[in-house]
Amino acid sequence: MTNVLMVPMRDGIRLATDVHLPDGAGPFPVVLERTPYGRNEISRSEVTVAAPTPIKRSELAGYFTAHGYAVVFQDNRGRYGSEGVFEKYLSDGEDGFDCCTWIMAQPWCDGRICTMGLSYAAHTQAALGCLDPPGLVAQVMDSGGFANAWKGGIRQFGAFELKQATWAHKQAILSPEAVADPVMRAALEAEDICDWFTRMPWRPGHSPLRHHPDYEAYLFDQWTHGEWGPFWQKLGIWAEGFHLRYSRADCVHMSSWYDPYSLTATTNYMGLKRAGRGPQRLILGPWTHGNRSAQVFGDVDFGPDAAIDSWAGDWRLYRLRHFNHVSRGTVNPEPAVRVFVMGGGTGGRTKAGHLDHGGRWISLDDWPAPLARNVAFHLHADGRLDPALPAPGAISYDYDPAHPVPTIGGNLTSLEPVARGGAFDQIEAAEFFGCRAPFLPLASRADVVVFETAPLAEATEVVGPIEAELWVSTDAPDTDFTAKLVDVYPPSEDYPRGYAMILTDGICRLRYAEDPANPRMRVPGEVVRIRITLFPTANLFQRGHRIRLDISSSNFPKFDVNPNTGEPEGQARRRQVAVNTIFMDPARPSNVKLPIP
Questions:
Q1: Any bridge partners for residue 28, and if so which?
Q2: What is the 3 state secondary structure string of 521-551?
Q3: Which residues, 6 or more positions from 540, have their beta carbon under 8 angstroms from its beta carbon?
Q4: CATH 2.60.120.260 domain locations along the chain
Q5: What is the 3-class SS of 384-409, one letter each residue?
Q6: Would you give the DSSP letter of residue 206?
Q7: For 209, which of 36, 216, 355, 391 could close a Cys bridge (C-beta 3.0–4.6 Å)?
């Protein structure tokens, strides 16, 4: 039985809510998902290996009602059937709390609520979990649940993630306001988002979102608030600040190596465990965002074991087992942490034309891997990357914001059609935004500084958080430094030029290096030590491969381009070329720390 209701929130705004009830008298444990993507729309990620066609949420509800759960799907405020004005992320905590309170008052609820959802529907879970709502006993946060949106998800250590711009444009087209106003919708649809990415930075009233002022306003709020402070310390985008008072629910945090929320998942797992909240579990796969039942991501095949179905049965069954364990006391055999270690394949080209990189799942007692040791691989002026301390040296390069380094895959989502995530050879091609003929390797650019090991004498496994520590300077008021970890295949019959496979990357905006709350412009030539947090990864570098670290100052369109002028965030009109320098000597040993079990 399905009921469609308008559920009032504390301020009187009513949210469209579908309630699916099992047969029988009840009461029942409840599964809740709150989403901005339509409470009865097709959910693109609700697939399995055996059933690859996405299904509607009503069909998913049937799976759980058949196992004795009441299921509640609710549209977020200002989306689809719900009243109110959509303010991205910031109303989900209180609305989620109020929804749980309403569910607990219903005669069909047995007093236990389990939440689930991907991406934004994971953000809504973390938001309500921060308020410790009544009845919450279990959560499955799939690729989302902001730990700290300044460090990842909206900004990344100061730089702005431009997926927020493409997401805003696509969702403005689907907004209730655009549905009610065909002229607004037609105007939004007429804007070519790829063309607009050639005209950055945008300005209020001069962007593809100008036809929907509310969506444009929230985007520029995020874009122009660069410094860490009260704007970022809000319910819905800062679970870190609520870890000590978070719900004691049994939580699953899931993300993947080519997803933008692996840092979020690991931070929340570790933070809630340290805070002594409920049981915490972590899953980290090789997937792109939400594509947990596939095995090819970008141009790389990770093998049939890559799909979560290879060990979970499928994703629906995994969630059911978790909810049954929490609400019905059944045995849960899952380890604390499951991690997919990429690598170990043949290195040849598959029949479908992809690199056979392979991989395998491992179980860990905790995260980071308890036995891993951080080995510092030092940067050397001759381009070497090895544990030995460097001789005195420095490398300078010109960073021109008019010609940024193009994004070629990596851990990103929601940037389509401008860019897409996944594992790719780091060679320019027509399919990647910003690339130009003759389509050479990124390593050939003068503004990409490459450091790599000698061919490995034995296989080396890296599992865990990655951090680059650099001593740098610039002659500009401000600039960025980027770091990218790459697995370099030697030349082969299938890949005569070798294959430089991106694993993970990170960025640091220099004005925030010492104190994100108090940005400081640079003095020309001033040397500063910075730390670039690359998102975590797990990879087996096979014998004969090289470990490579690429340093540069841009990664566009994944991140906004730093104009080097020091102008306020998101408001620059000028650009200048910066001379950026990396220092390498025993007193300033620039390095990348790799966790090796």
A1: 109
A2: CCCCCCCEEEEEEEEEEEEEECCCCEEEEEE
A3: 341, 342, 343, 344, 359, 459, 460, 461
A4: 373-596
A5: EEECCCCCCEEEEEEECCCCCCECCC
A6: B
A7: 216
* Residue 391 near residue 379 (C-beta atoms within 8 A): no
As a dihedral over the C-alpha atoms of residue 452, residue 456, residue 460, residue 465, rounded to 10 degrees, the angle is 0
Average pLDDT estimate for 350-379: 97
At the topology level, CATH places domain 2-152+241-364 in Rossmann fold (3.40.50)
pLDDT tens-digit series, residues 308-339 = 999 999 999 999 999 999 999 999 999 999 99
Distance CA 402, CA 382 (A): 28
Residues 66-87: b if buried by 16+ CB within 10 A, e if exposed: ebebbbbbbbbbbbbbbbbebb
Q: What is the DSSP letter of 490?
A: P
Measured CA to CA in angstroms, residue 26 lies from 30, 65, 107, 326, 416 at distances of 11, 11, 8, 18, 44
CATH code for the structural domain at 373-596: 2.60.120.260
- Give the amino acid at 319: R
Cβ-Cβ contacts under 8 Å for 313 (sequence gap 6 or more): none
Single-letter residue type at 329: G
Residue among 510, 508, 488 at smallest CA distance from 442: 488
Task: Using a cut of 0.70, tell me whether the model's pTM lies above it.
Answer: yes
Token pair listed for 573: 């009109």
Give me the pLDDT at residue 2, please: 72
Cα separation of 259 and 152, whole Å? Answer: 11
Amino acid, res. 554: S
Cα distance between residue 23 and residue 541, in whole Å: 53
